[in-house]
């Protein structure tokens, strides 16, 4: 155990400064034309086992959790946790896109905001934003994209509070949306944070907030089906700016019932070898079939972050997204799943 753990920590440390180590020829390319590693449901490593179930969950889940908590709660936890590394560890590992599902607890009179994935986290949003700031201050040439999403239970007052916290904490590190976000420009201006925000009224009021970042979510339990979905989205063409290709598999009730001893971690780990092949076939860039952010679950496994970062070396040669021959070669490497 000791050897692999030491190797893993070493790899994480190397990736902590990867943006600052990119060759100068990439400094003037917008970040939405580079390959960026991301984490899906970033904050699920600190879900609260004693928390109430989210108000947005189905009545059936709430009922079962209330009647059979000793059985249902462990199942919820097994299928809700998507990450085991803390946010600082994820950043140090090289993740540059953070997927924040933000919520306010029902019947909570305070202004405290949490993260949510079926249940709420033990930490508040404000505490995590300060943690990110502390990391950025020791990594002055790294840029982080924070996607603020979902907003379960947030009123207009709570939105105002959240945006005020974001602006107070990051201040001049926030990159306004009228800036073309190349590394050279952001380093020159001292910007390190891009915040996308899924609430149109707040976007209209604050130039520091970026529009929602499209997320290609396959909603699949099968690796092969997920890859087919991602390839179909690529054929339709990438968005013009930031977007995410999600390589995260998603369980459903039928899958959970058929796999009573399974978990999201088991489902993810068995998919990684095939997804690793797919990742290595991708190309960053502005062309129709190119990728930008690739986000996954359990990002510390199987060299996921390293593989995504290394895609940027392809920009040194004339960009070409996959030809028909590359597609055939890729699919021939996939085992039957």
From TrEMBL:
A GO BP term here is: lipid metabolic process
Q: Which InterPro entries match?
A: PI-PLC_domain, PLC-like_Pdiesterase_TIM-brl, PLCXD1/2/3
Pfam family for this entry, one: PI-PLC_X
What's an example of a GO molecular-function annotation for this chain? phosphoric diester hydrolase activity
The protein depicted here goes by the name Phosphatidylinositol-specific phospholipase C X domain-containing protein
Species: Hirundo rustica rustica
